[in-house]
Amino acid sequence: MFFSPIANSFPQALNRLYQARDAALQNGKQVVDLISGNVNQAGIQYPEALLRAALLQALPETRCYQPDSFGQPAARQAISSYYAEAGVTLPPDQFLLTPGSSISYFYCFRLLAESGDEILCPSPSYPLFETIAQLGNVRLTSYLLKESRNWEIDLDYLESQLTTRTRAIVLISPHNPTGAVAGWTQLRGLAEIASRHGLPLIADEVFSEFLFAMEQLPRPAQTAAPLVFTLNGLSKMLALPGMKLGWLGVSGDPALVKKSMRALEMISDTFLPVNELVQFAVPEILRAGRPFLSDYRSRVAGCRDLAARSLSQCRKLALVLPSGGFYLTARWLDPDRDEESWVIDLLNRCGVLVHPGYFYDVPETHLVMTFVQEPQLLESALQRLAEFVDG
Ligand SMILES: Cc1ncc(COP(=O)(O)O)c(C=O)c1O
User: Fold this and answer.
1) Which of 237, 267, 288 is the last residue of a domain?
2) Is 13 inside any structural domain?
């Protein structure tokens, strides 16, 4: 009686894997976490002195509160320049600052869909969207990424999933958890479908800096799609999830962009949720963080190579090498148990925590893991994992 249907629908207990993890930790066992997307816990942190200097420099600007519903202009200018350097034209007045990409999704869902409308998302997919969709009162439908084609989008299938209630198509590239990066041919096909059906694209680019097979990320904002929402933020890009600073870049048909910005302004103005200190610090955080970003990218690429080498040697795993991001999805070729029992056994026997594929709607038996971890820990964990799988 007390609670809403949404509140009642949230699971009351932890799943079996997390119960096993908590029990292992309580018993003092060492567990190497290959599931967390929090790179700070893997020892990657934006340099403290630079962060301190950027925040101190920003402090006087916050003494007299003068909010801007789109976000402080200096921050939007710096973000616009970041895109200009990558050859993407996104003027400062086409950005909205948010407290992170998860909230950017929520804003997009509220902007584009009403109760019962559908948002078409990739499958497999990071489970975050289900809860956001529930909170936004929209339905998720899915299009397939095909493992047999290096997790490419099946565009024909995607188009067949559009209904009269579809209000937007989500693209995640680099993708979590497959590591797939959509190439130009895929993006042009997607933009063509979006134009033909008059649908916006929501482009999640939170892993844009972490590419292993190409220099520049192909972006929907550079296609002829009618309306594109580009999502990113400091969380993954500069290993600053605690700063809670994301953005939405809106591009495409000028009339649609104008209408979107006006409505987003109202949504954002209702809460004004982004911390002013961080907003004023954005230009310096981006500028001073360049050398760190370069080291961080090398570190992630090194971890990816290490994981690719170790797992490719497993006879019983098939792996599509990740082209970007922090995650990979490997297929277990000779399953003798269900996925969940398998990952729980791996945890209990080897102290290595990975996810079963079904958490992400991956069909058949797969394991999903991040490779962003301390290199030594990662190497020994992967060795144990490989022995467990083949043994
Ligand atoms: C694909 C993807 N999009 C968005 C997010 C959320 O990003 P943020 O920390 O900016 O809310 C995550 C977090 O892991 C993610 O994996």
Assistant:
1) 288
2) yes
Cβ of 235 less than 6 Å from ligand 1: yes
**CB contact at 8 A, 218 and 87:** no
pLDDT at 324 over 90: yes
Please tell me if the CB atom of residue 101 comes closer than 6 angstroms to any atom of ligand 1. Answer: yes
Residue minimizing CA distance to atom 1 of ligand 1: 176
**Strands 366-370, 327-332: parallel, antiparallel or unpaired by DSSP?**
antiparallel
Pocket test for ligand 1, best of 125, 209, 235, 328 (most atoms within 8 A of CB): 235
Check if the beta carbon of residue 181 is closer than 8 Å to that of residue 195.
no
Domain that holds residue 110: 60-288
- Region class of 100: left (phi > 0), else alpha (psi between -120 and 50), else beta: left
Would the pLDDT of 295 be above 80?
A: yes
Q: What is the mean pLDDT of residues 301-326?
A: 96
Closest C-alpha residue for ligand 1 atom 16: 176
The model's pTM? 0.97
- The finding on whether 106 has its CB within 6 A of some atom of ligand 1 is no
Tell me if 20 is assigned to some domain: yes
- Does residue 65 belong to any structural domain of this protein? yes
